Amino acid sequence: MAEEQTLIEFPCSFPIKVMGETQDSFAQTIIDVIRVHDSGFDASKVEMRASSAGKYLSLTCTVYVTSKPQLDDIYRALTSHPLVKYVL
Predict the structure, then answer these.
(1) 66 Cβ partners below 8 Å, 6+ apart?
(2) In whole numbers, what is the pLDDT of the chain averaged over residues?
(3) How many structural domains compose the chain?
């Protein structure tokens, strides 16, 4: 099987921005989703910002990924989660 072309060199630390409506469990839920695919994910590497009106919360999660399939799996898990509005 040929390896997919990517401009990212693995392994690497990769920032993922996750946005959703503000609620108490949002940050922990996102951390738990990421840990399914990266058991060593360091929650202290999560930067959190609220929108100006406070309705939305943005998390920047820097994950250490070892392959494109792993990164793809993280994106798929996050984008399919009901609390998540956007993933960049």
Answers:
(1) 10, 11
(2) 93
(3) 1
